[in-house]
Amino acid sequence: GEAVRLAEHLKKYVIETGAKGHVDSYIEDTSVEMGQRTVLGAGSVVGAGSRFGDKCSVKKSVIGTHCVIGNGVKISNSVVHNHVNIGDGCVVQNSVICSDVTVQEQANIRDCFIGASYNVTAGAEHRDETLSTMSQS
């Protein structure tokens, strides 16, 4: 197979590759920080200035710019817009999270659309829902 060449600043990260050895994920620039044992899976994109804690997993997802992702977070098949904070131990699957959202620790989000500036409380479980600040007031 072909050798995969990574920029020097990415060599410490675990980035999965496709069958032919191509990197199937994309990190926008050197301002992205990834914690220990964080895995960026194939088909994922991470925007500039985003930070990940330890032991995170991102699969087939887009993470916007300037997001803060806590420790032990699992994100799959989702789109996370800009300036989103996701707390420790959260799970996000098959969802869209708009800009300026806060997802507090241990929340579980599946098949949801979360509107801009929404606050998901700690330990919340949401499935097949549309959440917005209009419904929060």
UniProtKB/TrEMBL annotation:
One of its GO terms (cellular component) is eukaryotic translation initiation factor 2B complex. Coiled coil: none annotated. This is EIF2B subunit epsilon/gamma LbH domain-containing protein. Belongs to the eIF-2B gamma/epsilon subunits family. It comes from Pycnococcus provasolii. SUPFAM superfamilies: Trimeric LpxA-like enzymes. Keywords: Cytoplasm, Initiation factor, Protein biosynthesis. It is found in: Cytoplasm, Cytosol. The lineage of its organism: Eukaryota, Viridiplantae, Chlorophyta, Pseudoscourfieldiophyceae, Pseudoscourfieldiales. Component of the translation initiation factor 2B (eIF2B) complex which is a heterodecamer of two sets of five different subunits: alpha, beta, gamma, delta and epsilon. Subunits alpha, beta and delta comprise a regulatory subcomplex and subunits epsilon and gamma comprise a catalytic subcomplex. Within the complex, the hexameric regulatory complex resides at the center, with the two heterodimeric catalytic subcomplexes bound on opposite sides. Residues 29-121 form the EIF2B subunit epsilon/gamma LbH domain. GO terms for molecular function: guanyl-nucleotide exchange factor activity; translation initiation factor activity.
